[in-house]
Amino acid sequence: MFEKVRKLIAEQLNLKEDSITPNSRIVEDLGADSLDMVEMLMTLEEEFGVSISDEKANELKTIGDIVAFLETK
User: Fold this and answer.
1) Is the CB of residue 63 less than 8 Å from the CB of residue 9?
2) What is the reported pLDDT for 35?
3) Range of the domain at 15
4) In terms of pTM, does the model score above 0.85?
5) Which helix (H) or strand (E) holds 14?
6) Which of 19, 37, 66, 67 is 20 to 30 A off residue 51, Cα-Cα?
7) Active site residues
């Protein structure tokens, strides 16, 4: 799961995959802005067939948070 999420986020943010770890903070470490976040969440919803509420989206601070959320779905 982590590898797939990392690949999607690397493509979305134009980063190298090896620069992304489970502890990478999306905004602080990876430089995502609010538009990046919206696009990333839409991509994740489409790719994994899930719905991510605004409330839940605000709780997703790291790549590990995203992976943990997706694994519960």
Assistant:
1) yes
2) 96
3) 2-71
4) yes
5) none
6) 19
7) 33
